[in-house]
Structure formats: C-alpha cells, structure tokens
Write a structure and sequence with these properties.
binds ligand 2BA, alpha+beta, two-stranded antiparallel ribbon, single chain, 109 residues, four-stranded antiparallel beta sheet, elongated
Length: 109
C-alpha cells in the first residue's frame, strides 16, 4: 500500500477531491500553507493499493493546473539610511507537488 501526499492549489482542490471520490478512492483534505508564498494551499492524503498509484497521479494531473503568480519578496530591513525597493517577481506555482510514500501498516478500527 502507498500513501500519496499531494499539495495542490486551493482553486483545484475541490475538483480533484470530487474526481478522486467519484473513482472510489478515499482521501483526506488538510488545510496547509506554502512556506515560500505563505498562502493557503491544500494537502490531500490518499491511501491506495500500489497498483492504483498511477491512476491517482493521472487524476491529479488532469485536475490541477499550474499558474503564474506575482509575489513581492519578503526581506529584512536594509541598512540605516538605505532606500530599499522590492519589485514583484513572477513564480510558476505547479499544478501539484506529490510525494508517494510506502505504508508500513494500515488498519481501520
Ligand atoms: P510555496 O512554498 O508557497 O511555493 C509556491 C511556489 O513558489 C513554488 O511552486 C515555486 O514556484 C516557488 N518557490 C518556492 N520556493 C522557492 C524558492 N526558494 N525560490 C524561488 N521560488 C520558490 P511549487 O514548486 O509548485 O510548490 C507549490 C507548493 O507545494 C509550495 O508552496 C509548498 O507548499 C509545496 N511544496 C513544493 N515543494 C515542496 C517540497 N519539496 N516539500 C514540501 N512542500 C513542497
């Protein structure tokens, strides 16, 4: 058995969850925050048999889109008397960041 951990954008989370549940997979949705943008995103935990991992990943690929986002870097104060201007930079936020982990033991009590 494997645990698929997928970090996705909030905008794609409902569509992905609906697609997973429709195909009969069980999933848990966690509210999470990206370390770089410090914005909300969604982490989904999906426990599946090893042979179903590729099908789950295919569902993730078809439900999530990458998007460009402007972000103003957060940096500390400049030296005294210095004027510091922070320009927004564009980052490409991926459709999903996915980890597939081995499950040592699974029980439903
Ligand atoms: P964030 O950490 O908020 O990152 C959002 C996007 O900002 C990233 O998109 C990437 O395009 C950019 N970014 C992140 N760190 C950067 C850096 N040090 N320098 C320049 N640009 C940077 P994604 O790579 O698609 O990641 C989307 C979200 O997935 C991340 O949100 C984070 O919550 C999660 N994530 C990505 N890689 C991860 C990892 N190795 N471990 C844990 N979580 C990860």
């Amino acid at each position: 058995m494997k645990l698929v951990v997928a970090m996705v954008q909030d905008k794609d989370a409902a569509r992905l969850l609906e697609a997973l549940v429709k195909q009969g997979w069980r999933a848990t949705k966690l509210a999470s925050t990206g370390g770089f943008l410090r914005e909300g995103n969604t982490t989904l935990l999906v426990g599946v048999e090893s042979e179903d991992v590729e099908k789950v990943l295919e569902t993730v690929r078809s439900s999530c889109r990458s998007r460009r986002q402007l972000v103003t870097p957060v940096v500390g104060p400049g030296s005294p008397g210095e004027t510091c201007v922070h320009f927004p930079v564009e980052v490409l936020v991926g459709g999903a960041t996915v980890f597939v982990l081995d499950v040592e033991r699974f029980e439903r009590v």
